[in-house]
Design brief:
Blueprint: H1 7-25, H2 27-33, E1 35-36, H3 37-41, H4 47-50, H5 58-79, H6 81-102, E2 110-111, H7 115-128, E3 133-136, E4 140-143, H8 144-161, H9 168-185, H10 189-192, H11 194-210
Antiparallel strand pairs: 1-2, 3-4
Helix pairs in contact: 1-2, 1-5, 5-6, 5-7, 6-7, 6-9, 7-9, 8-9, 8-11
Membrane topology: Multi-pass membrane protein
Keywords: Hydrolase, Membrane, Protease, Transmembrane, Transmembrane helix
Family: Belongs to the peptidase S54 family.
């Protein structure tokens, strides 16, 4: 079911690899284009997009590109290349915007990675086919909708507790972007997958309404 050989998906993967490799070898390049709150709030808005094509190391890059390879072709084959690109870049921007909002009082907070964009693509896939089987810890099969809800809950917890060196806010923003854009581009999902749309919408709405209060809890 999951297809990764689509030319558009492969072009995005190649762009991520090339820009990330440049950043591996040239810290000045990485520093110039990474997401950094203070710089973005200034005049360097391009960092909200450019940071999504940079990664800290090969493992970080490989994990994101593997997920994109597995899920990207599926989204493209169902919705088309234009919709895929809208969801990818829209989710990337949504991840950056949510990160900016959550860390707005931390001018030196910085991040890189395609996780926000990839999270949006993964959620688009699950919205299109919520019963797809995913492997938890590469061994335990679970339905896509269970993974989606669990991922949201874990990301909210990780953002609150600052678990690991991970941009949980970008993941959340990306999932919100992917969720909203997929429904906008394919509104039939409101009728074909109504129950799952409602289930996933509840934590997203709560996050949007009360997310700012997480830091004070």
């Amino acid at each position: 079911m999951m297809q990764g050989s689509n030319p558009i998906v492969l072009l995005i993967i190649i762009a991520n690899v090339l820009f990330s490799m440049k950043g591996f070898d040239n810290y000045a390049f990485l520093d110039k284009y990474k997401f950094q709150v203070g710089r973005v709030l200034g005049k360097e808005k391009i960092r909200m997009i450019s940071s999504g094509f940079l990664h800290v190391d090969w493992m970080h890059l490989g994990f994101n590109m593997y997920a994109l390879y597995m899920f990207g072709g599926f989204v493209d084959s169902i919705l088309g290349s234009i919709s895929f690109l809208i969801i990818y870049f829209g989710s990337l921007l949504a991840g950056s915007l949510y990160t900016l909002q959550y860390h707005k009082n931390e001018p030196y907070y910085s991040a890189v990675g395609a996780s926000g964009a990839v999270s949006g693509i993964v959620y688009a896939s699950i919205l299109l086919f919520p019963d797809m089987q995913l492997l938890l810890f590469f061994a335990i099969p679970i339905p896509g909708y269970v993974f989606a809800v669990g991922y949201l809950v874990y990301s909210i917890y990780g953002m609150k507790k600052q678990v690991g060196n991970i941009g949980h806010a970008a993941h959340l923003g990306g999932t919100i972007g992917g969720f909203a854009l997929t429904l906008l581009l394919n509104p039939m999902l409101f009728t074909t997958n109504t129950t799952f749309v409602i289930i996933l919408a509840i934590p997203i709405l709560l996050l949007l309404l009360f997310g700012d209060k997480l830091k004070s809890l």
